[in-house]
Amino acid sequence: MTRDRRIRFNGFKCSTVAHTTAGLWRHPNSQSHRYKELSFWIELAQTLERGKFDSLFVADALGVLDVYRGSPEQTLREGLQTPTDDPLLAVSAMAAATKHLGFGITVASLYELPYLFARKMTTLDHLTDGRIGWNIVTSALDSAARNLGREDQIAHDERYAMTDAFMEVVYKLWEGSWQDDAVVHDRASGIYADPAKVHAIGHKGRYYSVPGIFLFQLPSPWWRHHRRKRIRPLRNRAKPLVRPAPASSSARTATSLPISMSSMAALATFSAI
After folding, report:
1. Could you say which DSSP state residue 178 is in?
2. The pTM is what?
3. Helix (H, G, I), strand (E, B) or coil at 199
4. Of 68, 169, 195, 239, which has the most beta carbons under 10 Å away?
């Protein structure tokens, strides 16, 4: 089998004024201050699609950078990663304005609930027609932990153990609740879904308890075509998640759930100044 060596081009952005391009917001042609406008993201997505990019990757953080001098003052002065909003909320609008562009969004598992998050991603999977991806992170910022109900950040290995558990639950919801033919949609009989083909996952673990069924119907567009390409568990927690690309027609990033973004083989930075 001949290995596919095509480069996948992915735009790289963060929903903030300055991320990897610190200070460029001062340029007279900069548009980065428009990160809070829906039109900015739609224009960006359309520009990437015209340029034949495969996808847009959006980084995110749940805390402010406050290590320098023990204060967020410098971060605020320079607009470094703060202020920032929720990048997931613009995805459906960008998808509606494009036809082929994929979207990989960073979401920290540590501060989500798997039962609710699985529904969010499946919703976007349907609304984007299978063009959504998840960059799985645990969140390492102490400022995030303090503002989300914890006195200190959870230790590294414990964070990854929790993420393992999180992944176990979302996969049970995605793979084990709705059978592929559960939705009947029979107008004559008045049956939309066959109750015998929708199953409670009965999960009870150290971190999460989810006894019931998944709220949303499956299969979704991506899941229908790629459900066999399941990500491996997050093992070797003492080491960074860096793995060689699989010898298949498409490489995947080490930390991304393979939904649409599984074909990411190279990251080309695109900065909308």
Report:
1. B
2. 0.80
3. coil
4. 169
Q: Name the phi and psi angles at 167, rounded to 5.
A: -65, -35
Q: How many whole angstroms separate alpha carbon 17 and alpha carbon 19?
A: 7
Is 115 in contact with 144 (CB distance < 8 Å)? no
Q: How far is CA 133 from the centre of its chain?
A: 5
CATH second-level architecture of 10-153+217-263? Alpha-Beta Barrel (3.20)
* pLDDT value for 74: 93
Return the pLDDT at 254: 31
Mean pLDDT by 10 residues, the chain (273 residues): 82 91 91 94 97 95 91 92 93 97 95 96 94 92 90 92 96 94 96 97 97 91 63 42 32 34 31 33
Whole-number Å distance between alpha carbons of 175 and 180: 9
Question: Residue 57, SS3?
Answer: strand
Report helix, strand and coil shares of the chain as percent, to nearest 5.
Answer: 35, 15, 50
Tokens 């391009």 locate to 21
Token digits for 129? 């027609």
Please tell me the predicted confidence (pLDDT) of residue 1. 63
CA dihedral 223, 110, 119, 168 (to 10 degrees): 50
What residue segments make up the domains of the chain, in order of their start? 10-153+217-263
